[in-house]
Batch of 2 targets.
Target 1
Amino acid sequence: MSDTIRRTGSCLCGGVQFSVRGPPLRIGLCHCKDCRKTSGSTYSAFAIWPREAFEKTGLVSSYGARSFCSTCGGRVAWVDDNEAEVMIGSLDVAPTDLVPEYELWTSRRETWLHALPGTEQFERDRPAANSTEVPARRSLSDVDAAA
Ligand SMILES: [Zn+2]
Ligand SMILES: [Zn+2]
């Protein structure tokens, strides 16, 4: 049963281990300023699970909702009250079976990257899918920077 799939991940040094249980809520790519700055790469590939599906062991430091290994600096997760966002590259098995469904902040995508076929494209943040979802939680600084 796909509901019982459990994926494991860790930071670079292995001091922090985590797992996510069941299928993710959504999978995306993001080119926003926050994703670029926090990774040092030009975009991030992430998957989001319900908060209760995420477990971790080990010591993390945090910056807002972001957490990372205190020793190696490897990303662990973005966790708020409802959701846990995990960088796909921090999962143990590669390649994964996780395929992005949408792409955010394409206005900041490097010119040598191309739209991922079959994905929804958003120039900036993804509009809230329904009234219960909080919009634009990921890139407040980008809103300022783009102004
Ligand atoms: Zn580490
Ligand atoms: Zn982003």
Note: The helical segments are 33-39, 140-146.
Target 2
Amino acid sequence: MPDQAHGLRALADIARRELEELPRSSETTLTPVLARKSTIDLNGLAASHLDQAVCGSSYALADISQVNQERVNSVSAPRVQHARVIAITSGKGGVGKTSISTNLALMMAKSGQRVVVLDADLGLANLHIMLGVNPKYHLQHVISGEKTLGEVLYPCSGGIMIVGGGSGMCDLADLDNARRDAFLADLSSLDEMADVILLDTGAGLSRNVISFLCAAEEVVVLSTPEPTSLMDAYATIKVVSREAPEVRLGLVVNMARTDEEARATKDRMIKITKQYLKIDLDFLGSIPFDVVVPQAVRAQKPFTTTYPNAQASRAVEQIASHMGYRSQAPSGGGISGFLNRMQNFGRRLNSAGHR
Ligand SMILES: Nc1ncnc2c1ncn2[C@@H]1O[C@H](COP(=O)(O)OP(=O)(O)OP(=O)(O)O)[C@@H](O)[C@H]1O
Ligand SMILES: [Mg+2]
């Protein structure tokens, strides 16, 4: 297919040019992320705890302008079709990231979008388990050059494709130039194949999770109504909003037992992020606590497929449709832009001695 080959080559050239424009060295130094202690009350939890939580587990780039410039560079590159890169995350673990990523992907696919879900949980890659599939190859095989991206994309029922990630994602920041260019050329073909790339990240504020979040175009932060979950979600939002102000941040409340609880959780988070971080968090919706979710996990089937009329399924459908309306967002350069930014974060953190 000469046309397709030509298209891919053109994409690869653009990606390479973008890479060449990026500074190869970094003088950026790292500083503790928070200076100010605040006293917000989250269900009785003093928010000075939030600050400590963030200080203890994170870092800030003293100069984020370079990263932002990369985003601008990738926007001003010749226009090609770029996939939206959306990271799904939470501060606390076990709040539903993988369940929501898979079902959100299915709902987006149902509305006609081409969706790829990338398992970006480096510790416990289990996206495939939730879908009841067992892909033989994953991103590591592409990074090592054994397989092409097309060979590791695993089609699942419902029209979505997944890529197993696991620990291979760690290696992305450390690729040598030749390997990185080859990988990037391959990966950039995702921009032609997908409208949306969802990253199912791990929990917390590890160096890798932060790199994914700050490199993504949109970040969906999940929180349950529990104060610990809220506190950790706030910490995540705080870091991302400071490190990468262009990233579009959205909130999903999961596992609320009543509408009132969902509303109160949302209101609290919107209020404290506005008051203390000066950001307008985009509320994307809430998903009630619903027994069909764990039932579907046990059956290794997505709940939106098995129980399409369940409350949780309808809620995810609404969130997918809400997110669809936001799709006219300025492009951050698709998957190539994402990878460039992520690598740059990695290089800076390496040069500052962060592991
Ligand atoms: N809306 C919901 N109602 C009931 N149970 C839910 C809901 N959402 C998620 N769960 C349950 O919560 C558990 C954790 O879900 P999941 O594995 O998706 O979370 P996670 O955030 O990806 O976890 P990890 O941080 O370990 O990656 C699962 O048992 C799932 O069934
Ligand atoms: Mg998970």
Note: Confidence is low (pLDDT under 50) at residues 1-80.
